[in-house]
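Hello,

I think I submitted the zinc ion job twice by accident. Can you confirm which output corresponds to this input? Input:
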Amino acid sequence: MSFQSYKAQKRVIEFLQTAIKQDRVAHGYLFYGPKCAYKREIAIEFAKVVNCEKGQLDPCDECPTCMQIQSGNHPDVVVIEPDGNVIKMEQIKQLQHRFRYQSAPGMTRVVILDSADRMRIETANTLLKFLEEPTSSMLAILITEQEKSIVQTVRSRCQTVRFVEPSWLELAKRWQVHGIQPPMNYVLAQCSYEFEQLEMDSDELEKIFRHVIEWSQLLVSKQSTAIVTIQEPWFQEMIQKKQVTLVLDFLMIWLRYVSRLTIRMSDENMVDFIQQGRNIAKRTTQNACAKMMEQVMITRKLVARPELSDQSLIEQLVIQLQKDAPSDWTKLGYS
Ligand SMILES: [Zn+2]
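Support: Only one job matched these inputs. Its output is below.
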């Protein structure tokens, strides 16, 4: 991997490379932006490039330093993420202990704090004080989704760097690198999952997606069996594995696709599903799809809450969605 692998973040990369070129790399950076914007990956690339033995604007990926950083084994590059719910003071103390001696000459120590918003003010202040000790050649990269979720005192001591949402095509390519083949890589590109969250391969994912398509046909056609689908083994398995959100995301993606087909907008990356898409699109409207998507979104926000049962949430969703389906469906001849 190098900076070139993250084309969507071209402006971020140019900004970081300019800092290197002008020898003006700051002590602290705040990387913020959407979940799948490769903030952590680019932070690692940055750690490599400021230390790469070849001293270029892109990490060489061949020198021992680049390779050690990439594999997560470099003693001077540390990634800290919440231990449980928060980044604890204890983790910062451990870091201070680890870095109590000077680094090797010419080496910039890098601390990457993923989900830096999950850190209490006193922890953040301890960290910043440590980073700003004049003797240390250190660089901290804080990563978060919302810029404002980081307290002002911390933010003001960092250079803020905004990441943009990558395109679906770019995200699809990344899923393919993780072994997810078309068309499912493109489907997954439309929802925000990290690779580690999904323990399924392309075939398993496609099976679920096709189940969702069949389910949507029942939903839109107001067939009473739509509610029975929830009892089917695949659905029950998703409930047990606490992956109802994936089912809802798939339904959302599917409805969006159908909605576009109602106005004859196709998407070549979804061509494997076009026949079923057209069958449904013929019998619904863009407006009805929009209403259904709204309901799915509401349910999506409620799932996985401990006080609510996912199963009954989905049952309520089915009832609601069938209310929103066009009432003259049967007249249109679908059964
Ligand atoms: Zn290198």
